[in-house]
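Dear colleagues,

For the upcoming journal club I promised to circulate an example of a predicted protein-ligand complex. I picked one with magnesium ion because it came up in last month's discussion. The inputs are reproduced below in full, followed by the predicted structure.
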Amino acid sequence: MGNLPNVYLYAANNPSEATLAKRRANAITVSHLTPPLASAGLYKGLAELKDSLTRFRELPPGDSARDDLAGLIHDQAAAVDLEGDAETLWKTLLETEGALITDGLHVVGKPMDDTVRRELLDVIPGLEKDARENLDALLCANDELQPLMRALGGHFVPPVPGGDLIRSPEILPTGRNIHAFDPFRMPTAHALAEGTKQANLLLQTHAALPRTVALVLWGSDNIKSDGTPIGQALALIGATPRFDSYGRLSGADLIPLEQLGRPRIDVVMTLSGIFRDLLPLQTRMLAEAAWKAASADEPPEQNFIRAHALAYAEAMDVDLEIAALRVFSNAEGAYGSNVNILVDSSAFAEEDELADAYEARKSFAYGRDGKAVKNAELLQKALKDVDLAYQNLESVELGVTSVDHYFDTLGGISRAVKRAKGEDTPVYIGDQTRGTAKVRTLQDQIALETRSRSLNPKFYESLLEHGHEGVRQIEAHLTNTLGWSATTGQVDDWVYQRMSETFVLDEEMRRRLSELNPKASARMANRLLEANDRNYWTPDEETLAALQDAADELEDRMEGIAAE
Ligand code: BEZ
Ligand code: MG
């Protein structure tokens, strides 16, 4: 590009990719807001169920009216694909109601209207009166077009940290040049303490102490949390970062077993290409932590990394240095596992092809020297010992069904583990996007997102106000859901059934969607049929026939438009 200016309009919450844009293409990023947030609320059958549960909870135990209500509650719960006792149902409803969702899309330069702004301020945790007023004023005054024009005019664009509004209000005003972080200070002491807490929460959630955890690490979640996921990895291994006398990250040390109080857990760390690019010091530090654990003079029953590394060294006839490699990513310059591309284009016959793609792309082992060497055999050996796979949510804005990257990384490795072991692996999502950490099974996370987002009129109507792009986003939720079926099999039947009813089988909605975006609406119908073809869902014959008719109708309409 030479000295041609590269002014790049960029989402304020994406400091990791913004940093790459700056490094690779000399970009001056001009930040813009992401969609406002709102709480999901309840709708239709979920709201009715909550009414009944509220009445039930108000009645004294032993009151005969409770028994009548219990029958109604059971039926109402079944109608919204829920089961369990009153307490369980209550908790599920509260979690769904309070879940944060994105409210439509952000239009660059367009101020938020009053109700949207108020609701956004309402959902930001711990916002005191003064801070709220301050934030409100900043949002009202926020102007993204003026700074964009200034940047295009060759003027200075002031810097701003990247992040999401809910955790980092300092991203306001937008229209500024995003910077990321101080690479020498990550993970911070706070991130280590948080990471340790979250790692313990994961261990409590899983039924037994895992010997190996497959941990997916991204750049963005680490940047936004000063390295908390890195802290999780270190905590599981029982290690801590080492800083030199200037306070710069210089490696990792082991925490003594007595202090750890449990065995060292083996961690297969898979880095996104972005993490690998942005965090080379941390990549080496993690490799050093694994190496030090593998070579520690400790009983293997107290040190699963050592136990596994010794076994791999023997089986593969390699030295311990190689057998102790646990940090895997793409080859230099490559990103992603391609599992998302295969799913999006339906270009796989058997799900094991997704495992093949994952392993081909992600089997580059990064050593203590930061260099990568392809070692598919070692990755396969390590995957065979994995007891659970885990990834953190990056932000409130993006759920595991909003973008295709989650099933590309966490789904990809889960499928590779399944192939290596010949059985399903438990998959967990760590959600600390709202301050308090929560670990959910993937199945629960998908159910929560489906109820609070995809099927929620508040969510999809706000998207549909944006026409064509709104339909595309709804379609993406469905495709990403199919990506989870393909990689983990952990999507309930009702998800596809209700998506069919809401977006394809409802005549009025089908017409609306196809008028706004004929291509995406036809894709939705075909995706649902694909889910049936691949046995991710077994609809009754009537539903299947109706879907087929709808798909034909939508295809015809699309071809008609193309012919015109
Ligand atoms: C990352 O920050 O590592 C990342 C961002 C988007 C997609 C995948 C990974
Ligand atoms: Mg991109």
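Two points we might discuss: The CA atoms of residues 198 and 436 lie 10 Å apart. DSSP finds 26 helices and 16 strands in the chain.

See you all on Thursday,
B. R.
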